[in-house]
Design a protein that fits this description.
275 residues; alpha+beta; five-stranded mixed sheet; two-stranded antiparallel sheet; 9 strands; 25% strand; binds adenosine-5'-diphosphate; phosphorelay sensor kinase activity; phosphoprotein phosphatase activity; phosphoprotein; Phosphate regulon sensor protein PhoR
Length: 275
């Protein structure tokens, strides 16, 4: 474990001398610290919209003379904050479900990634509201044995992020293909590239941590919960897959979901057990 500094004591006898007491953090302690930080984060994330809602409610109650137009705009802001809380709770439930289910083998079903990708691209275009150009190259008939809802969560978070973090006029490219990784093993890759601002290298390893954001104002402004990439990572991992992130500041980012694929010719159940 890492040594943790418990206390730094200046000795009263010698101004220059400092006694540092350290302790190893055990795995259990680290887990506990992670949990405490998580609860603190969730509390903070929920408190912020609640404070806004309560503030406007108070104003509406105390000032019946406010013009109708202003009352309406307060109501809209409150409903936006309510939606934020609802999204956060939905993402928290998804994440906790993903973290508690480890073995999905008995619940896997054939999922057509081509159809899933088409659906997610369609939804991303609605979200973009014609602010971006979309290029999509989806190979037909790509299947994995998995859980439809979780794969949807992974794909949609990657693509919706591209829409949310790419300025208007930008281009979002979506590719889906399959490649051989061994004579009898294939993998499917769902890749989203954007022409957004990109992400500095030091942030990349942390992006899948819960509530990690490069720019929290921007994330919240665009409706982000801070949990999207954590959800994507877990959803891919339960399929034996992984998330790969490449980014260049100033030119854009590429997120790739890599999934081991079943060999259809060998039957749906037996051949895609991840290593
Ligand atoms: P959020 O709800 O904040 O988007 P995510 O877990 O989905 O949470 O993403 C974590 C952070 O990663 C975001 O806050 C943002 O800083 C960064 N990020 C994710 N996708 C992109 C992207 N396509 N371009 C630039 N930054 C991104």
């Amino acid at each position: 474990g890492l040594p943790r500094i418990l206390n730094i004591i200046r000795t009263p006898f010698d101004e220059q001398a400092t006694l540092i007491i350290t302790q190893d953090i055990t795995a259990a302690e680290q887990l506990n610290a992670t949990r405490t930080a998580f609860v603190a984060n969730v509390s903070h994330e929920l408190r912020t919209p609640l404070t806004v809602i309560n503030g406007f409610l108070e104003t509406l109650t105390d000032m019946p003379e406010l013009p109708q137009e202003q009352r309406q705009s307060f109501i809209e802001l409150m409903s936006k904050e309510g939606a934020r809380m609802r999204n956060l709770l939905a993402d928290l439930l998804t994440l906790s479900r993903l973290e508690s289910q480890t073995d999905i083998s008995s619940r896997r079903q054939p999922v057509c990634l081509t159809a899933l990708a088409e659906q997610v691209v369609h939804e991303a275009m609605l979200l973009s509201a014609e602010k971006h150009s979309f290029i999509s190259e989806l190979a037909s008939d790509i299947w994995v044995n998995g859980i439809q809802q979780d794969l949807y969560n992974a794909f949609s978070n990657l693509l919706f992020n591209a829409v949310r973090y790419t300025p208007p006029q930008g281009t979002i490219s979506i590719r889906l293909w399959s490649q051989n990784v061994a004579p009898d093993a294939k993998q499917a890759i769902f890749q989203v590239s954007d022409t957004g601002g990109g992400i500095a290298a030091e942030h990349i390893p942390h992006l899948t941590e819960r509530f990690y954001r490069v720019d929290s104002g921007r994330s919240r402004q665009s409706g982000g919960t801070g949990l999207g990439l954590a959800i994507a990572k877990h959803a891919l991992a339960e399929h034996g897959g992984k998330l790969e992130i490449e980014s260049v500041v100033g030119s854009g980012s590429t997120f790739s979901a890599v999934l081991p694929q079943m060999e259809i010719s060998k039957g749906l159940d037996s051949s895609d057990t991840p290593a």
